[in-house]
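Researcher: Here's a chain I'd like modeled. Treat it as a single chain, no partners, no ligands.
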Amino acid sequence: MSKQELVTLIEKKRAELIRVASMYGFTSTQAIHYSQELDSLLNEYNRSYLQQSFSVH
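Model: Modeled as a single isolated chain. Structure tokens:
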């Protein structure tokens, strides 16, 4: 997956999380599920793109 594709997925998942949380609350089962999915995407981004820049220096 390209960096841009991953960023797009993160943005979509963040928007879904905000929508679900505004409907059901931040502690709802649905919001927690979306939050965990967003966390996974952010972790993947960090592993793939941010840690690379730190190891170069």
